[in-house]
Amino acid sequence: MLEEIEMREIDEDRARCHNTRAGMIEALKIVQRRRGWISDDVLYELSAHLGVPPGELDSVATFYNLIFRKPVGRHRILICDSVTCWVMGEEDLKRRLSEKLGIAPGETTRDGRFTLVPNACLGVCDRAPAIMIDDDLHTGLTPAQLDAILGRYE
Amino acid sequence: MAIIYIENKPYQAPEGKNLLNACLSLGFNIPYFCWHPALGSVGACRQCAVKKYRDESDTRGQIVMSCMEQVAGGLRISIDDPEVREFRASIIEWLMANHPHDCPVCDEGGECHLQDMTVMAGHAYRRYRFKKRTYANQELGPFINHEMNRCIQCYRCVRFYRDYAGGRDLEVFSAHDHVYFGRHDHGTLESEFSGNLAEVCPTGVFTDKTLKKHYTRKWDLQSAASVCVHCGLGCNTLVAERYGSVRRILSRYNGAVNGYFLCDRGRFGYEFLSSAKRIRRAAKRNSASGAMEPADKKIILRSIKEIIAGGRVIGIGSPRASVESNFALRRLVGPDNFYSGMSAAEEELTALSIRIMKSGCASFPSLRETEKADAVFVLGEDVTNTAPMLALALRQSVKNRAAASLKKNRIPEWDNGSLCVIKDEEPGPLFVASLLPTRLDDAATRIFRGSPTQIARLGQAVAHAVNENLPAVSGLEQAVAKLAEEIARELTEASAPLVVSGAGCLSGPVMEAAANIAAALAAVNPRAGLFLALPESNSFGLGLLSGKPLDQAFQRAEKGEVRAAIILENDLYRRSEKKRVDRFREQCRHVIVLDFIDTATAAKAEIILPTAPFAEADGTLVNNEGRGQRFYRVMDPEEDCRPGWRMLAEIMEYAGIGDAGQWTTIDDIIAGLCAEEPELQGMREIAPPAEFRIYGQRVPRQPHRYSGRTAMKAHEDIHEHKPALDFDSPLTFSMEGFRSGPPPSLIPFYWSAGWNSVHALNKFQAEIGGPLRGGDPGIRMVGSSHKNFEYFKPAPVTPTPGGREYLLVPYFRIFGSEELSVLSPSIAGRIPGNLLLMNESDAKRIGAGNGSLVRVAVADAGASLAVKIDPGIPEGVAGYPAGMPGVEFMNLPAWGAITEGG
Amino acid sequence: MAERPLTGDIRPGEGPPRLTEYERRGGYAALKKALKQMDPAGVAEEVKRSGLRGRGGAGFPTGAKWSFVPMGTDAPEPKYLVANGDEMEPGTFKDRYLLEGNPHQLIEGMIIAAFAIQASVAFIFIREEYREACAALTRALAEAFAAGYLGGNILGSGFNLDMKLHVSAGRYMCGEETGLINALEGRRAVPRWKPPYPQTAGLWGKPTVVNNIETLCCVPHIVLKGAEYFKGLSRTGEGGTKLYGVSGKVKNPGCWELPMGTSIREILEEHAGGMMGGFKLKGLLPGGASTDFLLEEHLDVNMDFESVAKAGSRMGTGTIIVLDDRTCPVGFIHNLQKFFSRESCGWCTPCREGLAWVEKTLAAIEEGRGTREDIGILEFHVRLLAPGRTFCALAPGAMEPLGSGLKFFRDDFDRHISAPSCPWR
Ligand SMILES: Cc1cc2nc3c(=O)[nH]c(=O)nc-3n(C[C@H](O)[C@H](O)[C@H](O)COP(=O)(O)O)c2cc1C
Ligand code: SF4
Ligand code: FES
User: Fold this and answer.
1) pLDDT in the model for residue B661
2) What is the CATH code for A4-63?
3) CA-based nearest distance B180→chain A, Å
4) Do the Cβ atoms of C169 and A65 come within 8 Å?
5) Nearest Cβ partner for A83 among C164, C253, C335
6) Pocket test for ligand 1, best of C55, C89, C172, C194 (most atoms within 8 A of CB)
7) How far, in Å, CA of B228 to CA of B621, rounded?
8) Is pLDDT at B717 greater than 90 in this prediction?
9) How far apart (Å, rounded) are the C-alpha atoms in residues B352 and B189?
10) Does the pLDDT value for residue C354 go beyond 60?
11) If you average pLDDT over every residue of chain B, what do you get?
């Protein structure tokens, strides 16, 4: 069920938008911020709330990289796999992360703690390689530093 | 016209058109996918590339997409340049990277635009060596099959379904090389126009599920030109047959009527042809046992002769029977004894509509012309459910304002990407006044909901606001008066205003109000149009034959003046109250029914003669705009079936009536008709006579690749069967004959060298998207040049009865309200159920909720129905499912009582 | 040290200047000058004279772009201004620096630009991963509204401007200006056909100017100190300073504001500190992932639009990505193509299908499954995915590093195929 507070936030944003369509992406994000991802149920509810058919909403949701239509863990690890990070050791980082978490890129750990998402350039190429866990950037990483960093996210 | 240069040779092309269209119209072959003449250009597939040169001295040129280029004087292009040819071939190679190449098992094989374009682009050898992507398919309901792996991402499906037809449940999902076209989830496609996906999709993703049930390759289908029998608009169809059964219907292009498309009722209704309810044998009631028994036709004809000899015979015609059949019946019984067989309301409204059209009070646009209207007011008609393709046309009309504003920015109307951006920003005015919620409401600027009287009053108020010399409507609520002002303003300011009405709310005053508005507008703007929908495929044609109302037949029977009635292709239980029809039956000693469907009326007949439905007969239907159109049989009727007119001619011959013995071909009947009805002279011009030949040859119904004909009947007889002969038209039931360039009304299928798909149509049009070469088929039978219109006086307001009465209004459903299509299994799957629509508070008042059974009673009829609560329904009004299977006829709108409990 | 008008006030680690601090250092003086002493045409003219070229990658003259916007009383309304802060091009991190470091500078530049084209609504479009920039902008916008720099009747001039922040849901195509417009409208960010250009029919069909963040940050300085001043900042004919960046195996990767036209050698050696120990330069992409490789022999090329073009590449965003000798060039290019093919929007055939094919082919070569024919396949794509043949510039951009890579590192490709394996693994 959509929560009161979500609906309020959505409606406030929508009021500032040119039309309902223009508020669709933000509405998806508002919901995702609290739930981590957009389930079918939530999509239907959002569709009813906005008065937009579910297909129209999903057509947009599935287009964008950072709207998740599959469950994600409590923490979302975006690992930059673009060129500078790759040069600076991204593959080692990713391998280490995969080993440590026991998941392949794109998967979520069994305990629902982490989801590993390969991501386009994070725009910190001068401090490569980089990952972003939730809202925090971690840059200039070596595989060895990962343990300590992951430990900070329950 | 501008001069453009193609391979350095000058050609004339219309300035401003898109180059692809111009080149195709000139006869050049350029492959394309995302472009469609009705959907415009978006430049997505990059298939239509040509080389464009700056000037004569430019030898390098630049590759451009022809669908996105505008024709302008001096434009120089090359289609043949090796570099651009390589590019076009490469586009196919890319599309083929993930295409499964499953042509042998694909329903589209043999009529696939992708196959044609592959050959045209010259791509043969695929170098892609990696795994192909695959998708899951969806279950999309009874009409359309989904096979996503074949998709080439041309985006046409969503552009048709969503942007053109207003559907909201087909979308594109995901991105990059994983885009997916389908619904959000499995489920029946909601749009009434979903069947067009099968023609719009260039490959085998969306295909006709009804064809799949008895699949045949296009080249093995025998086809003929036909006209849809499922509503009054007269859309043109191509009917295709194999082994004596119709396999599918395709849209037959008519630049003045349906253009490229069809509605789902028209496309999938054909399955009634193989329904178990078909009558195929002559039968007679055993007077001892009372049971119907098949009998030899000769014996039956003898009985009929005797009955006729007994005198006091009347004939009851039908709005679903051809002009020829109705006329033959009239000839058989004599004009004084000929009754039209329409319900009282349909009779009255048809006559009114013809009268209005003859008066010349406004211009009467064709269906296709309504797309060009730039302000529309619909009075009382739920067009999606009564005249579906009109809804599709009106959906185009609301884009004209945006198109005009693009034009100001010098953006051509075919730039569909730009149009889609602003079409919702500047929607054109569309006002819908209806009894109940309609499917067009989502596109409407404003909606008015009321009783027929209220709609008529609003209409008269609009007419007054357009021309203040017309009487004002007294006692109008302020909101309604304001609305009338607004509607009048929009219509007056428009360059091509359109008023739409029809028989949909079964109210004369509503149609009269519509005529008044159109006339008031036309007095100052000759482009002001009026479009009046009529319910059945030949309502108009029957109206022209001046039959008498059914009621009068009943009255005559009441007085004992009817000994025998011959009923032609008509179920009287759909036309009048059950009680009255039952009485009529009792009062007639003999009832002879000619029909192809076993109806409630046929069930009570003494004699049944099987007629041939459209696929097995030739004839003429006159659509709501008075356009007479010929349909041709695609196969000879089987067993005892004969076209209605031929069966009637046989009776006349047997009974020795008139000169009917001379009526051997349809041309003979038409000649007889024209002699009696000078007004219908146009009938002669509709189609070429049977002896018409091209270079001495007939036109074949079978394509030149038709296979297996020597073996088709090998299970019956080892010898090849002689093809049936056709004395009624220049067509043959074979592959032999002259196949290129038959007159438009005769075209049995579209094919041209290199063009096996529906796009072969390009080669039959004078200009792509314009009229067919030789003119669009059909002749308008009613001229409206003379102007002798007198404004209708507003009808007096009838007082509302007191007490617990509800206004029962009819509602129609595209799937459910039409007699024949409901017998089609695919359509049967879409019939919503017989529900009485009510407002929540009204339902509460009688203690009913969703699904509770209630009893409805009006003067002469009653029914038990389940309630459906619909918030869009005004208080005090209830929607009655008119014409739905198992629902009794009621003369609506009428005041009636609704009580709880069946 | 040379002047650094755009970044001089940025103190990394300290957070961006708040409004009062920004004003204290002379912020919003340019806006006041524009609103009080100049008219829209005057502002546009000044920008045109400054020679400012768009910093989003294509280098289109900003003054010229603005001049296509219909002006006057019968111009369509409303008009829109959009700041493009999508910055998803791999190897590019200059706009982030400006957004995080000095959001008011952008806002001021936007108000002036909006005034010049008489836009009444402005959007800042930034990507979701830029959390810090997002927070900084949100705060700065609130401050600017509160101080009356935004909203109705700005500084009593009668000019109104609403400004909104739009945080993207992520796609490279959102950076392409028409894709961006679709994204702002809540649609799939596929590109739109031009013409009509956004300047005449953009957001919701109304006149719209899309400018890069850095471009807009130049505007206050041009207006305040004049076109001549701005021109004088440059070492070449193209006005202003430029944010250059270097990433890869260099000693001191980073982003610096330098005079336009600074040579690649100076950027690499003086600012980035030269190659890391043990690494040699093999090639470089001068301005982001969608530019052609340059080699050691090009080090003395001046980094401006014209000079880099003459050397056979594009300055693009001006952020250099270094390819060193211990990194496999095939792997490097494969990584780029993986990005492009994943980010293709799926609208046009050559890009959607072609890039995926290229990516798979490169993966095969890199993994030792390559064949001789594969080189032909790659060359075929480079030749056919040319500008004008695809719907937008994404695929042609992707072909730049591939085409030049095939030219310069052909031996390395061949070695992968004959081995067959990656010699660097
Ligand atoms: C695929 C693609 C991605 C782009 N991404 C960006 C971007 O992230 N930021 C940007 O400013 N311009 C980007 N551009 C360029 C924009 O389309 C546009 O030219 C630019 O924002 C205009 O600003 P300017 O005139 O100030 O340079 C991109 C172009 C393409 C084709
Ligand atoms: S499903 Fe058919 S119509 Fe739709 S994009 Fe694919 S090929 Fe085109
Ligand atoms: S038909 Fe022209 S690009 Fe598709």
Assistant:
1) 67
2) 1.10.10
3) 9
4) yes
5) C335
6) C89
7) 9
8) no
9) 37
10) yes
11) 95
Residue C268: pLDDT over 60: yes
Could you tell me if B38 and B392 are in contact, meaning their C-beta atoms sit under 8 angstroms apart? no
Compute the nearest-CA separation of A24 from chain C (Å). 6
Q: What ligand has the least distance to the C-alpha of B23? A: 3
pLDDT band at B730 (very low <50, low <70, confident <90, very high): very high
Q: Which CATH number fits domain B806-900: 2.40.40.20, 3.40.350.10, 3.40.50.300, 1.10.3720.10?
A: 2.40.40.20
User: Considering only CB atoms, which chain A residues are within 8 Å of B166?
Assistant: none
Residue C358 and residue C375 in contact, taking contact as beta carbons nearer than 8 Å: no
Please tell me the distance from the alpha carbon of residue C177 to that of residue C85, in angstroms, as a whole number. Answer: 11
Nearest CB partner across the interface for A123, out of C129, C169, C332: C129
- The angle, 0 to 180 degrees and rounded to 10, between the axes of the packed helices A24-35 and A40-50 is 140
Rounded Cα distance, B647 and B655, in Å: 12
Element (H, E) at A131: strand A131-133
**What is the rounded CA–CA span in Å between residue C358 and residue C364?**
10
Residues in chain C with CB shorter than 8 Å from the CB of A132 are: 129
**ipTM (interface predicted TM):** 0.97
Domains annotated for chain C, with CATH where assigned, are 19-232 (3.40.50.11540), 241-324 (3.10.20.600), 329-418 (1.20.1440.230)
How far CA B81 is from CA of B3, B24, B85, B124, in Å, comes to: 20, 17, 6, 19
Tens-place pLDDT, residues B747-795: 999 999 999 999 999 999 999 999 999 999 999 998 766 677 899 999 8
User: To the nearest whole number, what is the mean pLDDT of chain C?
Assistant: 97
Which ligand 1 atom minimizes the distance to the CA of C62?
A: 25
Q: Which residue intervals of C175-304 are DSSP H helices?
A: 177-184, 213-225, 227-232, 264-265
Angle between helices C410-418 and C372-384 (to 10 degrees): 150
Residues 6+ apart with CB under 8 A from B231: B265, B266, B386, B387, B388, B535, B536, B537, B818
Beta strand B338-339 pairing with B313-316: parallel
Amino acid identity of A55?
G
pLDDT at position B439 is 94
User: What are the backbone dihedrals phi and psi of residue C191, each rounded to the nearest 5 degrees, phi first?
Assistant: -70, 165
Q: Which residues of C touch A135 (CB under 8 A)?
A: 131
Q: Which residues of C touch B405 (CB under 8 A)?
A: 205
Q: Which residues contact B114 (CB under 8 A, 6 or more apart)?
A: B33, B95, B99, B108, B152, B202, B203
| Dihedral in degrees, nearest 10, Cα atoms B731, B736, B737, B738 | 120
Fold classified for B2-96:
Ubiquitin-like (UB roll) (3.10.20)
**Ligand 3 pocket, B44 CB below 6 A?**
yes
Nearest CB neighbour to C249, from listed A87, A127, A137: A87
Question: How far is the C-alpha of B883 from the C-alpha of B888, rounded, in Å?
Answer: 8
Q: Tell me the per-residue pLDDT of C232-266, one tens digit each, with 9 for 90 and over.
A: 999 999 999 999 999 999 999 999 999 999 999 99
Q: Is 3.40.980.10 the CATH classification of the domain at A75-150? A: no
Cα atoms found within 13 Å of the Cα of residue B730, Cβ hemisphere only: 23
Q: Which listed ligand is nearest to C55 at the C-alpha?
A: 1
Q: What dihedral angle (degrees, nearest 10) is formed by the CA atoms of C183, C189, C190, C196? A: 20
B798-835 as b/e, with b when 16 or more CB fall inside 10 Å? Answer: eeeeeeeebbbbbbbbbbbbbbbbbbbebbbebbeebb
Alpha-carbon gap: A147 to the closest alpha carbon of chain C (Å): 23
Q: Residue B603 is encoded by which pair of tokens?
A: 């069930």
Cα-based distances in Å from B886 to B341, B574, C195: 20, 10, 57
Taking the CA atoms of chain A, what radius of gyration do you get in angstroms? Answer: 17
pLDDT digits (tens, 9 = 90+) for A31-49: 999 999 999 999 999 999 9
How far apart are alpha carbons C265 and C246 in whole angstroms? 11
